[in-house]
Amino acid sequence: xxxxxxxxxxxxxxxxxxxxxxxxxxxxxxxxxxxxxxxxxxxxxxxxxxxxxxxxxxxxxxxxxxxxxxxxxxxxxxxxxxxxxxxxxxxxxxxxxxxxxxxxxxxxxxxxxxxxxxxxxxxxxxxxxxxxxxxxxxxxxxxxxxxxxxxxxxxxxxxxxxxxxxxxxxxxxxxxxxxxxxxxxxxxxxxxxxxxxxxxxxxxxxxxxxxxxxxxxxxxxxxxxxxxxxx
Length: 231
Fold this sequence. Notes:
Layout: H1 12-22, E1 36-39, E2 42-45, E3 47-51, H2 68-71, E4 77-81, H3 82-90, H4 97-115, H5 123-144, H6 158-183, H7 190-210
Antiparallel strand pairs: 1-2, 3-4
Helix pairs in contact: 5-6, 6-7
């Protein structure tokens, strides 16, 4: 998701915020395209950063009054799949700046529908919603995580495979789980509320490492999270 337009390009921190806000889905409300795809066993990123107001003065929806920094700011960017990015830039009159800003505002509601997030009346129903996602993440970690033997061999490709799995599966699943838990906060115990905030920080650290490439120690997945909503 990196472009070479000087200060009109988002920095690494802004890119991470944008990706996190997308939760792995195109921010066009009429498109439910995942921002990762796969072909012949290989997963790849198809996310593109579209400027609301163009990065350059002769671009789509140009606003010559904006500074380069303002053009590369979080507020002036939206995450789209490749097809939607092409459409909005090829037909800027049909996709105005106000339209793109509205897409971005409404994306959270769209995610609730995509994720099937709902408010439950009991803990068992909430557990049924999050458990498959937590199991999938645990399975991916156990099979491909940095602790496996192959990860110690730089020529094995295990590190790249793990990164693909994190971006394509674990990060989107984390966002789904967090959306469900936030929508059902009324069902959490006091200890689970604390655990949820630890999970939120873990998500932020994981995304910083794999998206922003911040090479620093990060918080581990809170193991108690695997049992959330269990009585």
